[in-house]
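DOMAIN: structural biology
WANTED: fold as tokens
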Amino acid sequence: MTGNGIRITPVRSRRDIETFLDIPYLVYRGNSNWAPPLRHEVRKLLSVRHNPFFDHGIANFWIAWRGRDPVGRISAQINHLHLDTYKDATGNFGLVEAIDDPNVFAALLSTAEEWLRDRGMRRILGPYSLSINDEIGVLIKGFDMPPMVMMPYSARYYATRLEECGYLKAKDLHAYVMDLRSMSASEIQRLEMAAARLRGEGKIRVRPIDMRRFADEIRLAIDIYNDGWQDNWGFLPVTPREVDYLTAAIRPIAISEAVLFAEVDGKPEAMMVWIPDVNEMIADLGGRLLPFGWIRLLWRIRKLNIKSGRMILGGVRRARRDSLMSGALITMMLAELTKAGLARGIEKVEFSWILEDNSASLAVSRYGNARLAKLYRIYEKSLMVS
């Protein structure tokens, strides 16, 4: 596809993949807030063999060129798990990165739209990389700080370029940051007293993950998530293979105090999972582990001297939602999270991402001195030809 001096080519070869991986370095050159992802992890994301998304989805990837220079990239994908759940003929775009040129964005997006339209899709939604359970959204607020682990970063002009191509807001996602250092002694004491009173009643308790049964415990956390989140906008259950994929990703950095279960009469009814912000450890590696990146990363993981963390999962089983018990379970887990974070030298924790209309989760995230630090937007566009 050509137009306005822009040529679009599909990703086919290993060389194409490396070019696809190179493009963000062109876009974010000189931007200290962008955290280069590990290139081998992005390769796995694109791999039909490695990424469990392809168990129930298909995707294509393209590169935009001006002359011989790569200037942008994009994916388009169809998630059959989404179609089976919502039956709405919606496909997705994602992994979009491009220089600040309206012609480049128009060429990339029209290519993704045409690919989806040819496969019967009537609506495009994104960016998803590649599923709603992966990195999603365009950054709208929070450009002056690096992204937390497993969260995206975007250039300031991305939203404008998407809107120029007819894309409209579908949903906003919030990221709240709690600064543990600035919590007053009275705030901490009040939370600990509330948790102590609830523990004293004997009906509920909070326990950390059993690291000896790490995979089983993560499966339990995802089971609670799949149950508690099923009514949320865009929800898709995390599949067993996706659980294994997530488990492998977080195992090297997981700490026992970071995965919490709240039990009622011995039955797990709620969970919180937070992980150290690995982006602190990899920001200066340039996305490459060779020749010496592996050594530095392994040493940093061993030391685990990280100042921030991100809560990636949190929830209460559906049957407990909107109950007094739900509030008690969340209060106790927040107390343990605060205590564990302070003991580990964690200075801030990000709660992300949270749907703009998920009032219960937003209320939890505003706990203490938490503030809205970042805003991400999901865009949509009709593919119906008028």
